[in-house]
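[stage:ingest] chain + small molecule (zinc ion)
[stage:ingest] validated
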Amino acid sequence: MTRLKANYTILAIETSLDDTCAAVTVDDRVVSNVVASQVKFHEEYGGTVPHIAKRKHREWIDRTIDEALRLRSGRHQKITDVDAVAVTYGPGLAPCLEVGIAKAKELAREWQKPLIAVNHMEGHLLSSLAKNRQGKNKIQDLPEIRDQMPVLGFLISGGHTELVLMRGLGKYELLGETLDDAAGEAYDKVARMLNLGYPGGPILSELAKEGDPSRYPLPEPMKHRQDLNFSFSGIKTAALYKLRDLYQIRDLNNRQFVADFAASFQQAVLKMLRRKFKRALEMYQPKMVLLGGGVVSNVAIRTEARKVANKFGVPVVIPYSPKLFTDNAAMIGVCAWYQAQRGEFVEDLGQLDRQPNLSFRTKS
Ligand code: KG4
Ligand code: ZN
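[stage:predict] done
[stage:export] tokens:
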């Protein structure tokens, strides 16, 4: 462990997908967290278009960083009191990662400060450890995380669905992941079939609240597989066929029909998540569960996770603010602070490269 000075201040940058993000963290506290969303530029394509995302990151990155630093310092303080720069170096879209990394290197050189390279998924994993300015989060009343090992991380986002075992900070093991689509991706694709807009996950899950989940049951893929991997593309395809089969009653302008269909789809997703989550709890008996990723915004999923974990007497923790569920740079800054304590700095800036396929398997 490296002893860091108190109030260790990090400027963090995150550009792995379609949000241009910058944040300032002080130790594990979030002081500013700026997210410039590009959603409206990708809407008509129904997914992130890499070259458009790259262009927007380039256009917006300076302004986003400025705003993050200004929020922190007010008019009088200078940016030079940053102790380190942190940046996401993977996983993500290569052209997008590149923009953040180039900017982070530039600032580290200019300010003569160390650079910390962060795994985006470790950021999501540790997002529940982030504290607000007053030093509060949803984990504070529980015993120290270091005494809670092993901890199970359940990461559910638009790009990933993963179960991760944490044996210590910085010691991770990937237990299971999606073999095809991520959960959020399946939500977005089914939402598109239902003409709900982009990204449709949140809209679909809102509508599902009004629907009957048993109305249009979908088969459960990989029901008998014993491993901890997920598959959502089977559910998505089953939804597509089911929608086709329902041509006589299918009416996408009929709110009740769409709500019932959305609820039925969500039910199938919940079943898949529940089964693997329960198995992981049985197999590894963690003392605590950390949820992370954009799909954790979904209350039905959180409720389900709590219900399952309760049976094992295991607390389920989420980040203190919904802004930390979806992609953001604050989680990167907090993760970087833990890395800095482990002395994990980039030794040679010239050697740091994007790693689009970075995973807990390749490196923690
Ligand atoms: O973590 P995130 O911001 O981006 C990735 O790293 O992928 O997650 C975004 C994903 C999108 O697919 C979005 O549709 C999904 O999270 N999402 C939801 C909900 N809110 C966001 N999916 C289901 N229900 C929600 N309430
Ligand atoms: Zn993410």
